Every structure is written in C-alpha cells, then in structure tokens.
Amino acid sequence: MASEITYAEVKFKNAPPPPAETKGVSLPLVPPEKSTSQSAPQKPTWRFLRLVSALLLLLCVSLLIALVVTLLKGTGGCEEHKALPQSSAEWHCVLGRAEVKGRVWMCCPMGWKRFQSSCYYRSIDTMNWGDSETNCTGMGSHLVVINTGTEQDFIFDWTKRIFTSISDRSYYIGLTDQAQEGQWHWVDQTPYNETAAFWRQNEPSNGNMENCAVMHIETKANRNWNDIPCSTKVHRICETAATSF
C-alpha cells in the first residue's frame, strides 16, 4: 500500500514578496535611492575660484587707476611739479586751505619752509647775487620775491633765529636795479611797489654800485632791506610755489 504525501503551503509573516518574474529576462537588483535632503553639499570648482580671484584683481586695479587719476587732477599735471627740485626724495605736507579747491595738502621738499602757498629755502653757504639767482633757478625756484608785509614778517622772524655771526646776517632777495640805476625790479617780473618795500632808514643809498638788495638781520625792526654791491658774497633765500594735492 503506497504511503500518502501531504503538501502544505507555509507563509512567513513580514517576509518580502518574491521578485517578479519576467520571462527570459533577469532584472538586476537596484539599491534604493538616497534621500536628496541628506546628500552632502558640492564643493566649488577650481574654475569658479579662479573667476572670483580674477574679478577681485580687476577691482583692485580699477581702484588704483582711479586714485592716480584723482591725484593728477588735483596737482594740475606734471608742469606744476617742475616748479620744485626734482632731486628731492622726500616731501613735507601740511593740511591747508585753498580758496577754490577747499581743504588741500600743501607740500614742500624736505628742508624747505612753507608759508601760505610758497616754499622757501635758506642757504648755509654764500655766493654773489648772480650765482645766487642761478643756484635758485637750478632748483626750480628764484630768489625770494616779497609782496606783502605778512610775507616780510615771516621771513624776518624765520631768519633772525639762526644767524650766529656777522657774516650770517644778510640774505639776497630777488630785487635789483642793475638794468637802470634807481629802477628796481623783481626777478619774476612782479611790479615793484614802493609802498610795499621794507628798506632800512636812508636806504637804498645807491652808492658804490650797490645794485642788489639783501635782507639784513640785525635789529628787531622788520624794515631791514639794504642795497649792496652784487659781487658781495652773502647767503640767499629761494622761493617757489608749493605743490597742492
């Protein structure tokens, strides 16, 4: 007698369903996609970083060019700088005021003294009048031209503090009557104004071919001009326009 075989269907709880069968085709198992909200942020590429660097460099160059153009406009160009000694390596600047431009920097070469809109140089060596003027023009200036009582007071106060001997007491200024006796002229062609002159008492004497003017520092009075022979070797005061920025 043949034994009977009993078949039973067993289902497991929570078991994954069997893969779908496709006739003749085997489907690869695909892992589940990761959530986009949990993906790591992408780092910037080198091409993007190079672009940002180039833009920053271009911005810096543009700002530098704008600054140079502004300074050139404020100084009036190269011609104005030719009025100052080109050998000066350093400048001394103070904040001043111009009537038109407003507050500006007024600059003189180191070793020069600024007053209002001019720079002044006081020599420590001595020369005759002609060599003194040549020396001043070689530095882009001229022997000082005194136009006002305020300027005369400034130069007088500035020079009287430093003389140490008799030879130190006279400074050539840019006034001469060499072309015609008694007809005084300034070196920069400024008209000579008798009412704005500061001669000592009984000067100019016009004696002994005394055709060149000096500022003679010996008294407390600021009326101290004197005429002397142009061949006399004394100190000198040069003047030039200050550079503004």
Automatic annotation (TrEMBL):
Any Pfam family the entry gives: Lectin_C
GO molecular function, one term: carbohydrate binding
Transmembrane segments: 48-72
Domain C-type lectin: 115-239
InterPro entries xref list: C-type_lectin-like, C-type_lectin-like/link_sf, C-type_lectin/snaclec_domain, CD209-like_CTLD, CTDL_fold
Region feature Disordered, mapped onto this chain: 13-40
CDD domains associated with the record: CLECT_DC-SIGN_like (cd03590)
Source superkingdom: Eukaryota
Keywords: Lectin, Membrane, Transmembrane, Transmembrane helix
Protein name as annotated: C-type lectin domain-containing protein
Organism annotation: Mauremys mutica (yellowpond turtle)
